[in-house]
From TrEMBL:
A GO CC term assigned to this protein in UniProt: membrane
The organism's place on the tree of life at top rank: Eukaryota
UniProt lineage: Eukaryota, Fungi, Dikarya, Basidiomycota, Agaricomycotina
Keywords: Membrane, Transmembrane, Transmembrane helix
Keyword match Transmembrane: yes
This protein's name: FAR-17a/AIG1-like protein
Organism listed in the record: Exidia glandulosa HHB12029
Transmembrane parts of this sequence: 29-48, 68-88, 109-128, 140-161, 173-191, 211-238
Length: 289
């Protein structure tokens, strides 16, 4: 169990310096408010798309990876706003008291939210775009939301949150989740007699080529996972190492912010192990809130 917790960076304690709820440049209330706005927009998009668009139908929508990803974005921002605003008000985030399984699930959800939307955007504009997808105002709005704003939300999290690089174990997990979606797509074809995406149809290129496409999709998501990790590394290095931005914390933070100015930086980022060691040693220094 301790090995599993180490792989997923679950502590104890989990996220001791509130990286999931803080930003280097935004106050917790501002960060939580923006996340809440993203969640509201996500909910509005789901409702309008279900009521205005005729294709796909609400029952078919969960067969599309872009729609599943959008639900993930929306749920993440709902939860993240809740935790962030709770932390802003009390200095404690409910997330730190949750079961380890739920903490691991939240961290994994963050990784999918900053990885899968980028893949959706790349695949849509690189392989699926046709003028017919923008034939009505509803389709224009829905496609821009699902295939452009989705990545904007991901980039916001990469740049403005204080989260560390995702643990390496998340790399295989995102590949497994993508593989699980491939199963959903072919189950949809078997039960509904249509392919959600044309490039999944083996009759167009042959089974061998189809397997190659699926493997290539796995390669793309791994490449994006590595790219996101590098971007987070760069953000940590610039913000914390070069600019000395240790984060804006809640006024009622229970002395966790005081450890920030004595954090050590490893490859441009601070590891959870180092944060726990600092907490155990009881070191403290002034921090800005």
């Amino acid at each position: 169990m301790s090995r599993v917790k180490s792989l997923f960076r679950l502590g104890p304690p989990f996220d001791p310096n509130h990286r999931f709820e803080t930003s280097s440049v935004l106050s917790p209330y501002a960060l939580g408010g923006i996340r809440a706005l993203f969640a509201v927009y996500g909910i509005a998009t789901i409702i309008v798309s279900a009521t205005v668009r005729t294709s796909p139908t609400p029952a078919q929508s969960f067969s599309y990876f872009s729609n599943i990803t959008w639900w993930g974005i929306t749920w993440y921002h709902m939860l993240a706003a809740f935790h962030t605003l709770s932390y802003a008000r009390t200095g404690r985030a409910p997330l730190e008291r949750w079961w380890p399984f739920l903490q691991a699930a939240h961290a994994t959800l963050w990784t999918t939210v900053v990885t899968f939307p980028l893949m959706v955007t790349v695949v849509f504009w690189g392989m699926q775009f046709t003028p017919g997808k923008f034939d009505t105002a509803a389709n224009v709005w829905s496609n821009i939301s699902h295939h452009a704003l989705n990545s904007a939300f991901a980039v916001f999290e990469i740049i403005f949150a204080r989260t560390e690089r995702p643990p390496l174990i998340h790399g295989p997990l995102v590949v497994l989740l993508l593989g699980g979606y491939a199963g959903v797509a072919y189950i949809t074809h078997a039960t509904e007699a249509f392919y959600t995406y044309g490039f999944l149809d083996p009759s167009k290129r042959g089974v061998g080529a189809q397997i190659g496409i699926i493997i290539a999709m796995g390669g793309i998501v791994i490449g994006l996972f590595i790219a996101v990790s590098c971007l987070v590394w760069l953000r940590l290095w610039v913000a914390e190492e070069k600019l000395g931005l240790r984060g804006k914390f809640a006024e009622r933070d229970r002395a966790q912010a005081a450890t920030q100015s004595v954090e050590s930086v490893e490859l441009g980022g601070v590891t959870d192990k180092e944060e726990r060691e600092i907490l155990e040693q009881g070191e403290s220094a002034a921090s800005w809130v």
